[in-house]
Design goal:
- The longest helix is centred in the N-terminal third of the chain and has 20 residues, at about 5-25.
- Helix 2 packs across helix 8 (about 200-215) and helix 5 (about 115-125) runs parallel beside helix 9 (about 240-245).
- The strands form two sheets. Strands 5-4-3-6-7 form a five-stranded mixed beta sheet. It has a two-stranded antiparallel ribbon with strand order 1-2.
- By secondary structure, the chain is an alpha/beta fold.
- The N and C termini lie far apart (about 85 Å).
- Strand 1 and strand 2 form a beta hairpin.
- The protein has a single domain (about 35-260), classed as 3-Layer(aba) Sandwich (Glutaredoxin), CATH 3.40.30.
- The chain contains ten helices and seven strands.
- Helix content is about 40%, strand content about 15%.
């Protein structure tokens, strides 16, 4: 009896599909992936050991040298998010308010595709008056539980996480100044209330729950492999730096030298 070739192919496909389904029963690839994100995000009140990340020129910058005497505000950032433009003036107002109060501001760009040249261009466009470092592996944003751009983390003088969340209660028409009140509380030696706002706290709890569930469901199972590291960015050439920091239309000439001082 002659066997039809198309039937052989069909049987093979069905067998392969059945095997794939059978081998996936009882597994949780999403949970395994979340469980692989170690170490977990720190809770508010925990001490943050700091970081060393490159600035737009590729120079490693340690948070220990840039932290404020009384408080440090980490401003999570990305080039393409219009939310940066929406809140920039309010950020500058707060910086001016606390300029002589021992508060340091450092922006952390945690988007893996943002290049140093793009970050520098964005700094010029918004007249950034704060330092920016690149967290291209997203290690700092994950460790501090920052779910995205325009998330703020306030550290006290001992580098403890005292506030994590939004600038205020509304991106366009704010009424409740969360970050302002948090900074004021830290400077006064009080606990900010609330200590977490927006998606920040929820993101931390969701990741922790997923990690615990994955570990319980798959005891002894190795974690999923971490995602590949992003390709190293092209070095920022001096000509580009001069072009964007010294053009006559820039009303803040000299800011670049000030922000890149050690």
């Amino acid at each position: 009896m002659r066997i039809r070739g198309d039937l052989v192919v069909l049987v093979a496909l069905l067998a392969g599909s059945a095997y794939a389904v059978a081998t996936q029963v009882g597994t949780d690839p999403v949970g395994q992936s979340l469980a692989a994100r170690k170490p977990p995000a720190l809770r508010t009140g925990a001490r943050y050991p700091g970081f060393e990340l490159p600035d737009v020129t590729g120079v490693p910058r340690a948070l220990a040298k840039w932290k404020g005497e009384k408080a440090t505000v980490l401003y999570f950032w990305m080039v393409e998010c219009p939310c940066i433009d929406a809140v920039e003036m309010r950020v500058k107002t707060l910086m001016d308010k606390y300029r002589d109060a021992g508060v340091s501001w450092v922006a952390v760009d945690s988007h893996p595709d943002d290049t140093p040249a793009q970050v520098l261009d964005k700094m010029v466009d918004v007249h950034a008056d704060y330092r920016v470092v690149l967290d291209r592996k997203e290690e700092v944003s994950t460790r501090l539980g920052a779910p995205g751009a325009v998330t703020f983390v306030v550290l006290d003088a001992e580098m403890r996480i005292r506030y994590r969340g939004e600038l205020d209660d509304d991106l366009l028409k704010p009424k409740k100044p969360f970050l302002d009140e948090a900074i004021a509380a830290v400077l006064a030696g009080r606990d900010p209330s609330p200590a977490e706002t927006g998606l920040a706290g929820d993101a931390v709890r969701v990741i922790e729950a997923a990690q615990a569930e994955a570990s319980a469901a798959h005891p002894g199972m190795p974690h999923a492999e971490a995602p590949p590291e992003p390709a190293p960015p092209s070095p920022l050439d001096d000509q580009h730096v001069r072009a964007v920091t010294e053009k006559p239309a820039n009303p803040r000439r000299g800011w670049w030298q000030r922000l890149t001082q050690s």
